[in-house]
Write a structure and sequence with these properties.
Elements: E1 3-7, E2 23-27, E3 47-53, H1 55-58, H2 63-72, H3 98-106, E4 111-116, E5 126-131, E6 137-146, E7 151-159, E8 165-176, E9 181-189, E10 193-204, E11 209-216, E12 221-230, E13 236-245, E14 250-259, E15 265-274, E16 279-288, E17 296-305, E18 311-320, E19 326-334, H4 338-345, H5 351-367, H6 373-384
Helix pairs in contact: 5-6
Length: about 375
């Protein structure tokens, strides 16, 4: 199988000097030997699963939201360089875009659908563990559907031995109905020659809360995309992403919070480290649609550069069709400050040890939040033995 995909296209094109309007995946000769989501070791009480569902059939649950959004946008002026039409055919928009959906359909990848009924609070996390080997090619898709006033925590862990190569592609879509709460942890520690993409899209209805924690540590080439549609009034989205990009690693990211409901709220925080000859491309968009009066969005990026050879490209963006909104973004990108180094040196900590401490601090704050003991233990061991 050959991958020739246009992904991570931003909602409205901007100056192309940084080459951040989108990205491409061009990889040839990929063999897919794993085409489904691994079964969890234990299915928590309150979670039902349907395996091997036709993708388009499974995604019918998003149709009413899709049609409502398209209708709401009729006749409204578009931003210069509008690219939102590109993903109009998606059941629900995702960060990486429609090319991932088309790939899944061409490869006949079925969906695993996880359902939580109304008024059900699942006490244990649903753990989905991908344990890949050298040469594996994995492509899978999941849909997570939370009924009204329900709660669920999901942990997805992708791992392989350090010196392995292969391919993994994952598509995750979620629907959080009125008053529901979803916490989704995605932890990636694949071998240093793996190619990996992880695409996410979802809808949050009235008073729903969606939280994502992502930790990206492995693979040689990575593409990540997140698109949340805050459709319902008072819906909330929180994203905390941490990453370590070193060696020759390449990370390409696209995050979009689309506000449609009144008084919706999104907060996105990104903390990462670049070193050696690594490269990172980062896009983040707060998209305030007409009708989202009272909405608030905040995006903050904090990137530590530990080598003069790294390449960091970042582009935050705010799109606005509504007057009564509050959108903010900020970025802190640079090396360890002289003040911090002086402070640590005065206490007997040399520059290399200071770098290790800063890297660990950025990652451990997220690792400690992982609710699955086995996954958290592996990641804590990895972080403690960094560098």
């Amino acid at each position: 199988m050959d991958l020739n995909m246009k992904v991570n296209v931003i909602p409205a094109l901007t100056y192309n000097r940084l080459q951040l309007n989108g990205s491409s995946i061009n990889e040839n000769g990929i063999d897919i030997n794993l085409n489904s989501t691994p079964a969890p070791e234990k299915l928590p009480e309150g979670v039902e699963v349907q395996k091997g569902v036709d993708g388009k059939t499974a995604e019918v649950i998003f149709e009413k939201y899709r049609q409502a959004a398209l209708k709401a946008d009729e006749g409204l002026s578009k931003p210069n360089g509008d690219m939102s039409y590109r993903n109009d055919a998606q059941a629900t928009r995702t960060g990486m875009g429609i090319d991932v959906d088309e790939l899944l359909e061409r490869a006949n990848i079925k969906a695993d659908v996880y359902n939580v009924k109304d008024n059900t609070k699942v006490s244990e996390p649903l753990v989905i563990h991908y344990e890949l080997s050298d040469g594996d090619g994995s492509l899978s898709r999941q849909i997570i559907h939370l009924g009204k006033e329900s709660e669920l925590t999901v942990v997805m862990f992708y791992e392989s031995e350090e010196d392995t190569k292969g391919f993994q592609g994952v598509s995750t879509k979620i629907l959080a109905e009125n008053g529901s709460k979803l916490k989704l942890f995605k932890v990636q520690k694949l071998g240093n020659k793996y190619i990996h993409f992880d695409d996410f899209g979802g809808v949050a209805d009235d008073d729903a809360e969606v939280e994502i924690v992502q930790i990206e540590l492995g693979a040689l080439k990575n593409w990540n995309g997140v698109h949340i549609t805050l459709f319902g009034k008072n819906s909330n989205f929180l994203d905390n992403t941490g990453y370590l990009c070193r060696g020759e690693q390449q990370y390409d990211m696209n995050y979009i919070a689309e506000h449609r409901g009144k008084k919706t709220n999104s907060e996105m925080y990104f903390r990462g480290v670049l070193e050696d000859n690594s490269q990172k491309a980062f896009r983040d968009t707060l998209d305030f649609k007409s009708g989202c009066a009272g909405a608030k969005g905040n995006e903050q990026e904090d990137t530590l550069l530990l080598s003069p050879e790294v390449i960091n490209r970042s582009m935050p963006m705010i799109l606005c069709q509504e007057e009564d909104v509050d959108g903010t973004h900020g970025a802190t990108i640079g090396q360890l400050s002289e003040d911090i180094l002086f402070y640590m040196n005065s206490r007997g900590i040399d520059e290399e040890a200071a770098k290790r401490l800063m890297v660990r601090a950025r990652l451990e704050s997220l690792v400690r939040r992982i609710p699955d003991g086995a996954t958290a233990g592996k990641m804590q061991y990895f972080v403690q033995n960094l560098l």
